[in-house]
Every structure is written in C-alpha cells, then in structure tokens.
Amino acid sequence: MKHRSLALALMAAVLSGPACAETLKIVMESRLGNLDPILSASHQTREHGYLIYDTLFAEDAQGQAQPQMIDEYSVSEDGKTYRFKLREGLAFHDGAPVTAKDAVASIKRWGQRDRMGLAIMKATDSLEAEDDSTFVLKLNTPLGVVIDAFAKPSGVPLFIMPEAAAATPITEAITNYVGSGPFKFVEDEYSPGVKSIYVKNEDYKPRSEEPSGMAGGKVAKVERIERIEIADPLTAVNSLTEGEVDFMQNVPLDLAPLVEGNEEITTAHLDKAGYQYGYRLNFLHPPFDNKLVRQAALYAVGQKEILQAQFGDADNYQACGAIFGCGTTYESDVMADIAIEAQPEKAKALLAEAGYNGETVLLLHVTDNPAMAAVGPVMAQQLRAAGFNVEMQAMDFMTMLSRRASQEAVDKGGWSIFITSWQVPEVSDPVRSYMIVSEGTKGYAGWGDVPAIDQNIQAFLAEPDVAKRKEIAAEIQKIVYEEGIYAPLGQSSRLNAWTNKVDGLIPNGPTVFWNVTKSAEK
Amino acid sequence: MIFYILRRIVATIPVMGVVALLVFSLLYLAPGDPAVIIAGESASTEQLEKMRKDMGLDQPLPVQFAKWIGKVASGDLGTSLHSGKKVSEMIGARVGPTLSLATVTILLSLILAIPMGIFAAWARGRWLDKSLMSIAVLGFSTPVFVVGYVLIFLFSVKAGWFPVQGFTPISENPLRFLRTVTLPAFTLSLAYVALVSRITRSSLLEMLGEDFIRTARAKGASERRVLLRHALRNAAVPILTVAGSAAAFLIGGVVVTESVFNLPGMGRLVVESVLARDYPLIQGLILLLSLVYIGINLLTDILYSVFDPRIRY
C-alpha cells in the first residue's frame, strides 16, 4: 500500500506542472506584438513597458503627477525653464547608471511620437543634460502641462531608455530591451505569440512611498512573471479556474458567470475609468460635409440603447456625454445630453432643413471586438429611424484602421462613420485626445477643419490655472458637439479576474504587477 | 523510381513559384496595413508614410515581389515586421507542437479508423456497421472547436485528468507530452477517423465483390484472411488517396485545435500573422505548408507502388 502511495505521489509530481509560488502566470487581453512602447501605442506594448521601464513622473490614484525617477525639480518664475534632478542609485538592467543624457534622449524620441510630447517639443528651445543627474528643459512659451505630460499613464507614456536605444529613429523599433524598471525582460525566453518572461530586478530601488495609482514604490514581490498568450477567451477562463494561470486581464462579459460564482477566483474592475467608446464623421464627403446633417446624426444616435446592446447589465457601463470622459478633471456637461438619448424627431427636422437627399452613410462595422461589434447594428438602426440611408461594411479592427485612412468618396472606397475606443486617460484632456482633432486633411481621420479647436488647445496648453483650463475644455466640448466632430458612446471597464493566491493588484488604467504577491496556497 | 521522385521534386519548383505569386498577390490586395497595426491609431500620416518606406512597403508590388523571391531563393524567408525575428526562426520554434499533434493525430486516426472500416465492412448492414458509421458521421459533422470544448470540460475541468492548455515537448517530459497532446489529437482525429473509416469500408465492400475474393473463399481461406490479406491490400490505394488528401483538411483543423488548446504551433502562428498583416511571416508559412502538402502527395504516390506492385513509375 505504501509503495502504491509513493508511486502515485511520484506520478503526480511527474505529471503536474511546476507549482511555484514565486512565478506569477498572467493572461492579458491580447497578444504582445511590438516591443517598442514608444513606437507602438498598443496597450499590450504599454503593459510590457511598465514591467521593464521606469518613468520620470507618474500619476497617483487621485490623478496627480508625482515624481518617480525624479528626485526634485523646479520651474522658473516665468514658467519657461524646468530643471530636473534624477534620484540617486537608478540603474539599468545591465548595471549602467541612469543618467540625465538617457532621460534627455528618451524625452526627445517620445516627443516625436506622443501628442503631448509633440506639443512640448514644438515649444522647446533646448533640452540638455547639465550633469550626470540633472537636465534642463527650456521652453519658448510657458506650458501648463509639462509635468502632466511626463506623468501620463497611457497613450504613449514617457518610458526612460538607455541613450543608445533612445537614439533609434522613431519609425524603427528598438532592439535593445534594457530598462531600469522593477522587472527585467528575458529576451532568450521570449517567444512571440506564445510567452514573454520577466524576472525580478534585484537591484531596483523603489521609492519609499506606498504605491498609489501608477506612483509610489514599485516593489517587485514575485521572482518571475510568465505572460502566456491565450487567444481563446474560454480556454483562458478554464485555465484560470483550474489554476493553470493566476491572472486574466479581461474576462468577456458572456463568460463572467464562469468566474464570478467561483469561490477561488476574485473579480474586480481594476481600471475604474475604463474605456470611452465613440464615433467620428467624415467631413470630406456627402452627407457629412454638411454641418446640419452631422448634427442630425448626433441627435439620431443615443448611447443608452447602444450601451445596453454592448454590455447588457447597467452595472457594466456608464452613460456619459463628456468628451473628455466622466470622472476626469475636465468632465463637462455642456451639450452632453445630445449624446445620451436618441432624438429621431429632432434629427429628422435637421435633415429636412439640410435638404438631405438620401446619400449613403457608410458605417465601418468592426466585428472582431465584441464590444464594438454590438455598436454598428444599433447605431445603423437609430440612423435609419431618423431617415438616413445607412450601409454597413463589416471588417476587423485593423482593416478599419487602414480603411478609414482613405479620403476618397464612399463609392470609391471611402467611409462616413467609424467607431473606436480609447482608455479614458488617453482622452481626458484637450491635448491628449485625438478625438477632437480638426486640422483638415493632414489631421486625424474625419478631417474636420475647425481652427477654433486648435486655438482653444493652444490656450489650454498655455494656461496654468486648472479652473480656467476647465472653462477652455468646456468650450472645446461645445464646439465639438456644434460642429459634429465627435460624440462619445459612454464608458465601460473590463472585468479582471485572478486566483485568491494573488494579492496586491493596484487599481489602475494600465495593468501593472509591482506590489503583487502570490502565495503557495490560500 | 528514384528518377521519378527526383522528377517530382523538380516539378515542385514551378508549383511553389505559382503558390508564391498567388500568396503574395492575395496578401497585398487584401485590406490592412502593417504600419498602422504596429504604430496604432494615434500615429500621424507622416509617421506612417515614413514607416511604410522603412519597411519597403511603398515600393511597387513587382519590385517587392522580386526582392522577396530573390531572398527566398537564397534561403532567407525575411524578418517578421512585428517581432523583428527571422521568419525561419519563428517558424522553426513552432514546428514541434504542430508536428507532434499531426503525427499523434494520424497515428490515432489510422489505429482507430482502419479497424472501424474493416469491422463495418465485415458486418455490412448489421447493427455494428450502422453504429460505427453513425459514429463516423457524427465525428465528421461536429465542428472541431465544439469537440475541443466538450473534451476540455469533461476531462480537464471536471475530471482534472488533462491540462486545459499548453504543450510540453516529448524531449522534455514524455508523460507530460502525452498529457498535453492527447485531447487535442483526439479532437482533431475525429473527423479524420470518420473520413478514413468510411473510405475503408466502401473500398473493402467493393473488393469483396471481386472475383479474386470469391476464388480465395473457394480455396477455403478464412474470412479474416480474405479481409486482411486479400481485400484490404487491394483496397489500400483509395484509402491512401483519401488519407493523403485529408492532410489539407488536417492542416485546417490544426489552426482551430491549436487555438482551443493553446498549443504554440504553426496553426496559431498562421492566425496571428494574418491578423497582424505580418507579410513576410504569412508568406513563409504558406510556402512551407504548400511544400508539406506537395510532400504528402509525393509520399502517397510512392506508397501506391508499395501496396500495389502493379503500379510502376
């Protein structure tokens, strides 16, 4: 009998996978593609970036910028000169110290890519290292957003890389993955589409403050993180419930009952603000080259029915007509009602006034993202109810991105409406948000040419007082709705799930794994 | 025979050229832009144009094709647009799981399907025949992903006998290899079993009506000997044909099975590369899969002469 038990134990040991409390196995929402978090604005590349790189500043749980790699900084009285001093003891994973030259090179590369970075670089006279730990930014005009931009958590965060890596042209991907963050990337074990491995950076010196949002001490508490790519959500859920993985970044709502009733699984919305869905209209061709028709479309479409189709239970979403997101500093209710309820009668009246002749409205219908796939049919029906002649063309998200770049007419491969989504911190003010861009044919898809938007953005950039900035943001929101540039479709956040062995996950927009522990049993 | 094999191998070159041209044309005619996919939707038009130029995507299609085919001819399949790794390395890393899955599936299928077909033919019209053929029809008609999910639910989630996902190479741990490959292979083999068992049955039934079978029986040969030595050997050619051509079917099934069981094989790589519009990777994969398909057909032709000595090349 003893022999049998021993044999069974040996068998179990051989057959079972390695059970290591120090290894955290995570499944993210989609696969990690490009490894350059400055070139690629993909959220998965960003999450990879937060594991291995550090940032100069970071937003705390209250949305305030806090020093991260920075020890101290000062701003001149005229608001044009910023002097930054790095913390002592910062080092890259290869042992080289982090210097001011690395920070300067990283800012310059980021400043060619990020919308806030571009605005800062446009106003920059010089950016230079003064000594090994100090660098100075001199602007030709005061900007109120420098520190907020350096701390931005999403879009393209300002990750600090070694000077040599940061010298890579912005159109090419970096090939050196050495950062100075709390985890090291194990390049030898990286298998694209299969797994990415990170190990604890033993030499990392976290800040002494408690973690708060993206700020505070980033303490790596597990030895190893294995990011396993599982494309099939049901397989990922089954792996989680069976303990083969520890964390799942996004549980689709239709699979949520499989984890929510499981006593060994914890679920939560770590990203409280979530994603803002929205749509833009094409100003270049009929029918949306007519302002009245654009307004009619905004009145015809109502968030509530769409959100219900997308997320079902009202607990899963929030109706919100604020262009810069609800729960943000620049949330405004100016004309926000236009986006909430569908008003077909008002839309019909506007269409009659505009002399709409039934020109085709081509809706780019994204089908490979469950939340976006639900928008198209409801929106099309709302538009039809108001009298629009709507045609939907189904495609995957990436095809939509290519298709919407076409400035041709609808019958020559163009489009009329596209739907997209952004994490709320990416649209939370007029400088970050691409959704309000109206710079004509050289600007963002939709190509509205409304100079008043840019004038207000410049005023916002220069204004140091937050109360006055709020007024400017509200004015921008008014123009956006009046001109029919963009309309939000409400907010929703993804459902995260993890086994009860895992603890310490920090509520944030980006999913980060510092401070996270994993016990052997719980 | 050797001359025939060499001639067939040489004949694959123009076939591969046509495949390459077709794949290349289809890819570049399809919508999608790798630069947009890499940079994301916030990239400016100027940045995207620069990226396309750096990737060589701004050049005329014939130029791009000539460059690519030139590299392929020298054994270089290019570099992935997304990971920056060599296509040959990326494919090489994924061959193991797919080869393991395909081998176990084919072995499992032949072990199950040929006896099923023999028994069904032997018991023609009786309950055993009807039962076996009903199972075959069910196996062929049920989508691979449904079978996969049901097996995971029963044997991984409920019974806990097998892992839900993942793969362990046989060289690392043979027992764990069996655990990780059993359910996917069983899932994938169901349709294959159905196909091969049905063709085995029908071919055997056709042979059983032939004069030489009657002669064998008249000579006093046992029913087992008649079935296995006389009928089955002569029925082998159509069985081989179906088994060989079903390889294409198997390749299609691998894509789904690898996704459901999260096996890091070539099937998943095909899906990932297509979704990411990773042109060099897609082209490399399709070329390799075409080569495999041509190879299987060649092997089938060679096996014809082994099973039927009348066939000579």
From TrEMBL, chain A:
Keywords: Signal. Its main location: periplasm. Residues 1-21 form the signal peptide. GO terms for cellular component: ATP-binding cassette (ABC) transporter complex; outer membrane-bounded periplasmic space. Pfam families: SBP_bac_5. GO terms for biological process: peptide transport. GO terms for molecular function: peptide transmembrane transporter activity. The keyword Signal applies. It is found in: Periplasm. The keyword Oxidoreductase does not apply. Residues 65-438 form the Solute-binding protein family domain. InterPro entries: Peptide/Ni-bd (IPR030678), SBP_5 (IPR039424), SBP_5_dom (IPR000914). It comes from the Bacteria. CDD domains: PBP2_NikA_DppA_OppA_like_16. Belongs to the bacterial solute-binding protein 5 family. This is Extracellular solute-binding protein. The lineage of its organism: Bacteria, Pseudomonadati, Pseudomonadota, Alphaproteobacteria, Hyphomicrobiales.
UniProtKB/TrEMBL annotation, chain B:
The chain crosses the membrane at residues 9-30, 99-123, 135-157, 177-197, 235-261, 281-307. Signal peptide: none annotated. Its main location: membrane. Keywords: Cell membrane, Membrane, Transmembrane, Transmembrane helix, Transport. Belongs to the binding-protein-dependent transport system permease family. It comes from Nitratireductor indicus C115. CDD domains: TM_PBP2 (cd06261). This is ABC transporter permease. It is a multi-pass membrane protein. It comes from the Bacteria. GO terms for cellular component: plasma membrane. Residues 95-304 form the ABC transmembrane type-1 domain. PANTHER family: DIPEPTIDE TRANSPORT SYSTEM PERMEASE PROTEIN DPPB-RELATED.
